[in-house]
Amino acid sequence: MLGPGWAGDVREPYASVIAAINASGLPVVAVDIPSGLCADTGRILGCAVRADLTVTFIGLKLGLFTGDAANVVGERVFNDLHADPRLLEGAPITARRLTAGNLPRLAARRGASHKGQFGHVLLIGGDRGLGGAILLSAQSALRSGAGMVSLATRPEHVPAALARIPEAMALGAASANQLMDLLQKVSVLVVGPGLGQGAWGRSLLSAAANAPLPQVWDADALNLLAEGRVSLPKGCVITPHPGEAARLLGLSTAQVQADRPAAAHALSKKYTAVVVLKGAGSLIACPDGRLAVCHQGHPAMAAAGLGDVLAGLVGALLAQGMDAFDATCLAVWLHANAGERQGKFGRGLAASDLIPAIRQLLEEQAPCLK
After folding, report:
1. Domain-embedded: residue 359
2. Shared domain check, 24 and 127
3. 353, 333 in Cβ contact below 8 A?
4. What is the pLDDT of residue 227?
5. E strand or H helix at 201, and its extent?
6. Residue 206 carries which DSSP code?
7. Given 30, 61, 92, which residue is the final one in a domain?
């Protein structure tokens, strides 16, 4: 009924027809796009047909892969209708859909490799009551191939860190002054998991912001950034969920979700950073205008701690020499597909369940030794 060009809210008589289709109990096939779904943003325009199968033609539409799309698209099938390739020449490509065949590749390691060649990631966070977040990030960085991993956290969390991750070097930091020597020795920072927004977290974040290093900011680092308490160094990666993105842009969460591609681009431009706008159909935006979409994942991933795992994974890939956009694209794809694999076991997915699955997927995509 309503094709890819429809942009306004669905009106009568279409709204009643859509309601009848959804109430029919019959299998539903959508042609090109489910009526009521915005082809550009993935937003439901008031109401939309809930399809079991969507057959789309000529070119893939970004709105089929992000936002509300997962609730209404069903299985996706693409048919190019044998269109003359010349018809598509010059057509704008709004985003790259991440697949196993087009992922950035982590280079294989030489036989005589040593740990110093694969970076030293320092993870900063874990205020009182939030110590688990930084441990998840550190474990993720370690298992994703970083040569060395350190974490700076509250002194009382050090015993738990050493018990859970003896391979990591744990610093009990009561103040930012204790970070200064370590900041001279590491190659990548991951800041924010469990950081909190109190004086302790603010002081550590300020120290990190002044370090001339590649950085990944997540969680409370983003909340403090939104408050204007600190400036983000250029060339960083930030990983907001829609609520954090809304605070960073001075919008409501609903406004961010109404046009996720625009929000991702706006964040990337505002902060001169690579941005992961998390959520169903995560988007990765680069300041140079590139946009990638990852539609994989599983509803079982709606659980605490998964963002901490992603932040550590991005940090590990940066430490191994990938540039920010490529590292982030690969990390998001690995994270989503690990969640998809583990999600097949159903509810109760824990963030730490993803870590061994990520390691396995990374080896499948980019073998350590050829």
Report:
1. yes
2. no
3. no
4. 96
5. helix 199-209
6. H
7. 92
Whether 280 contacts 306, CB under 8 Å: no
At residue 11, the pLDDT reads 92
What is the count of structural domains for the chain? 2
Residue 93 is predicted with a pLDDT of 79
Written as six digits, the tokens of 112 are 């005589």
Is there a domain that residue 168 lies in? Answer: yes
When computed from its CA atoms, the radius of gyration of the chain, rounded to whole angstroms, is 22
* CATH number of the domain that residue 21 is part of: 3.40.50.10260
Label each residue of 230-268 as H, E or C: CCCCCCCEECCCHHHHHHHHCCCHHHHHHCHHHHHHHHH
Contact 247, 223 (CB under 8 A): yes
Residues of the chain with pLDDT under 50: none
Q: Check residue 99 and give its pLDDT.
A: 96
In a domain, 234, yes or no: yes
**pLDDT of 114-173, one tens digit each?**
999 999 999 999 999 999 999 999 999 999 999 999 999 999 999 999 999 999 999 999
DSSP β-bridge partners for residue 53: 29, 75
